[in-house]
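Reopening this one. Same input as before:
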Amino acid sequence: MDRNKTVESYLFTSDKERVVERLTTMGQKVISALKDSMEAFINCDDSIVNKIIEGDREINSMDEEIDLECLRSIAMRQPVRDELRFIFAILKTTTDLERIGDHAVNIARQTRSLGKRVNTEVDSALADMLDVAAAMLRDALFALKTSDGSASEEICRRDEQLDSMYESLTLKLIDLAASHKTRIQT
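Same output, byte for byte:
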């Protein structure tokens, strides 16, 4: 009986390693898509838009593959407690990564209708926010891979920095809109 449990545990561990590696690859592709979407946005580059849309197909495919791997693990290994929590965390994470990839596509597609960017201050603030968000995502994936709980807590604290950047950018955009409206009325 103990030997069977050891074999099951070993099998689950190898499943876990494979899924985490695949999830990390998916996360790296999502981070690249986000960075590319910002480049497409700032430079109004249609070739980057097409690259992001193509890459999203691969991200969607990886989401489905990881979900199937997790479901297979549930069906075949009958994981308990911690193992089951881990699987559900992976399922939730792939869903979130897939949505982030979709947002990158939406940002990229919007660049087609925006025309040439003229406000470098806003572009710079957006790029800075993206850098922080991408670093947080990269660190979160690493924390998951290494099971580093303290790194996870640090990432949550950095979210406040991102919220502050967002608030500052929102105020800047409101000011720009107000000054634009004032110029139109005069």
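So the earlier flakiness isn't reproducible anymore. For the record, The chain has a mean pLDDT of 86.
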